[in-house]
């Protein structure tokens, strides 16, 4: 099938490359000339394990092409995926849909044969209705179908998530596009993915409800972890004990520094805004947003206690600063509030991140980036394990640094408290 992916950000590039790998002809379009030039040279502008290899392979065999010519690309494709950003509006909580509607306006004159226009970006309920209105201004409704096919990829696991999805959600109000999409996703369905066919509005809401629910699950376990710390109970036991109930499930029950990234913070806000628009108070999600916002403060209080309220001139190391492992993404990472706040209190901070230096801290006083784990922890008073990279999972702290022992605050519960304490380190973690 001939596909066009509009937008070569996370969703557009990963799904475009993976569709090409499944044997389709895919054109990835972006306005950004630099990005397209880089991609043509096999250079991938985002950090995603395994992506670069697939780009090179499929570009070489000509199933994957890159272009800045939106109109031409749409004309030569049957299925158009809109994969542009839907960030939070400046000074608001709702999703900024200007990029989506601009694309719809730009492509409305390029519908030269029947086209399926799909939103893969996360878009609020009724966005598909608006796109349909825009396209109808130039085209009869028999010439196109607007479909919602949300993406459930996680950064760092995107290729695996695309190839082995739990479910594929397709929302459309006509049967023809359903048939085409079922066929497109055939190779994944035959490997066990559930295909869910529903109305367009339902598909749009499934995406937001899923992200909001996962954010709720994380926030819930983080609050239970707070309680565990007060009553000497291990949060891991609670996660295991709860997770074995199939109605609850064990995933996304890891306590930590709160959820971050480009999706959960933005989507939880956007869904409450949709609720408000339709006069429905999504109070659970609103309280999740509030609780997660306070999470960094809560962990910083703990840092203060661990250091006996003496943060000034203390050397603090952060192992990992991105919002989670296997990504270089800093968006809404808890380190963005923790590091400046500790710096303000007079701490001297070094961080090591496997994805390198972060410009976000360039203007924060007394913050520097180290090139190795060893360099980052040398002379440290407190080492904070902020991100759960594999690189941090088997550090032999005892042999790494001779002499002065630092305190370890493991915000991801990577290590066994017993083992680390047996090496003579003071060790703190989350909810245990
Ligand atoms: C999330 C969803 O998991 C994807 O299904 C969805 O497609 C994507 O958003 C999106 O809407 O595009 P992502 O933001 O890449 O994916 O990252 P997650 O792996 O979901 O992690 C989100 C945050 O929750 C991270 O800060 C992570 O550290 C935290 N988390 C996750 C926990 O604190 N505990 C957990 O048990 C799981």
Structural description of this entry:
- The protein is of the alpha/beta class and about 425 residues long.
- It folds into two domains: about 1-200, Rossmann fold, CATH 3.40.50.720; about 200-430, 3-Layer(aba) Sandwich (Rossmann fold).
- The protein is about 40% helix and about 15% strand.
- The chain has 17 helices and 14 strands.
- The chain has helices spanning about 10-20, 35-40, 50-60, 70-75, 100-105, 125-135, 160-165, 175-185, 185-190, 200-230, 235-245, 265-275, 285-305, 335-345, 375, 395-400, 415-420; strands at about 1-5, 25-30, 65, 80, 115-120, 145-150, 165-170, 195-200, 315-320, 350, 365-370, 380-385, 405-410, 425-430.
- A six-stranded parallel β-sheet has the order 3-2-1-4-5-6, with helices on both faces. Strands 11-10-9-12-13-14 form a six-stranded parallel β-sheet. The protein has a two-stranded parallel sheet with strand order 7-8.
- Helix 1 (about 10-20) crosses helix 3 (about 50-60), helix 10 crosses helix 12 and helix 12 (about 265-275) runs antiparallel to helix 13 (about 285-305).
- The longest helix is centred in the middle third of the chain and has 32 residues, at about 200-230.
- The mean pLDDT is about 95.
- The protein binds uridine-5'-diphosphate-glucuronic acid.
- Uridine-5'-diphosphate-glucuronic acid binds next to helix 10.
Question: Summed up, what is this model?
Answer:
With 432 residues, this protein is α/β, with parallel strands linked by helices.
- Major sheet size, sense and barrel closure: 6 strands, parallel
Q: For the largest sheet, list the strands in their spatial order.
A: 3-2-1-4-5-6
The stretches of 5 or more residues where confidence is low (pLDDT under 50) are: none
CATH level 3 topology of the largest domain: Rossmann fold
Number of strands: 14
**What is the percentage of strand-forming residues?**
5-15%
The radius of gyration computed from the alpha-carbon positions, rounded to a whole number of angstroms, is 24 Å
Provide the CATH architecture of the largest domain: 3-Layer(aba) Sandwich
Q: What is the CATH homologous superfamily assignment of the largest domain?
A: NAD(P)-binding Rossmann-like Domain
Instruction: Categorize the overall geometry.
Output: globular
Distance between the termini: 52 Å
């Amino acid at each position: 099938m001939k596909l066009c992916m509009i937008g070569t950000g996370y969703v557009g590039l990963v799904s475009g490359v993976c569709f090409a790998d499944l044997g389709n002809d895919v054109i990835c379009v972006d306005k950004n000339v630099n990005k397209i030039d880089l991609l043509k040279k096999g250079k991938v502008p985002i950090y995603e394990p395994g992506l670069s290899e697939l780009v090179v392979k499929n570009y070489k065999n000509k199933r994957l092409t890159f272009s800045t010519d939106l109109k031409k690309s749409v004309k030569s494709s049957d299925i158009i995926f809109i994969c542009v950003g839907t960030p939070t509006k400046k000074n608001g909580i709702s999703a900024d849909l200007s990029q989506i509607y601009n694309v719809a306006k730009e492509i409305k004159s390029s519908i030269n044969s029947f086209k399926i226009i799909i939103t893969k970006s996360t878009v609020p309920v009724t966005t598909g209705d608006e796109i349909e209105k825009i396209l109808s201004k130039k085209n009869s409704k028999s010439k196109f179908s607007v479909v919602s096919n949300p993406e459930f990829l996680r950064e760092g696991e995107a290729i695996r998530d695309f190839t082995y999805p739990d479910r594929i959600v397709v929302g459309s109000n006509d049967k023809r596009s359903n048939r085409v999409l079922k066929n497109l996703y055939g190779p994944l369905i035959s490997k066990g993915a559930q295909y869910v066919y529903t109305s367009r509005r339902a598909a749009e809401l499934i995406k937001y409800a899923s992200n909001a629910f996962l954010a709720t699950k994380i926030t819930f376990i983080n609050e239970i972890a707070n309680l565990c710390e007060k009553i000497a109970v291990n949060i891991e036991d609670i996660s295991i004990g709860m997770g074995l109930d199939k109605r609850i499930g064990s995933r996304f029950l890891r306590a930590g520094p709160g959820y971050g990234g480009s999706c959960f913070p933005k989507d939880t806000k956007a869904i409450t805004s949709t609720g408000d628009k339709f006069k429905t108070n999504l109070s659970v999600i609103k309280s999740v947003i509030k609780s997660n916002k306070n999470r960094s403060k809560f962990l910083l209080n703990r840092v203060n206690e661990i250091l006996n309220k003496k943060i000034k001139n203390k050397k603090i190391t952060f192992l990992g600063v991105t919002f989670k492992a296997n990504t270089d993404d800093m968006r809404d990472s808890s380190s963005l509030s923790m590091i400046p706040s500790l710096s303000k209190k007079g701490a001297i901070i070094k961080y090591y991140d496997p994805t390198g230096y972060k410009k976000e801290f360039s203007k924060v006083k007394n913050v520097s980036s180290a090139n190795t784990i060893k360099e980052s922890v040398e002379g440290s008073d407190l080492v904070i394990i902020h991100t759960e990279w594999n690189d941090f999972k088997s550090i032999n702290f005892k042999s790494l640094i001779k002499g002065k022992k630092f305190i370890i605050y493991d915000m991801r519960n990577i290590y066994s408290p017993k083992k680390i304490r047996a090496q003579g380190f003071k060790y703190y973690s989350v909810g245990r």
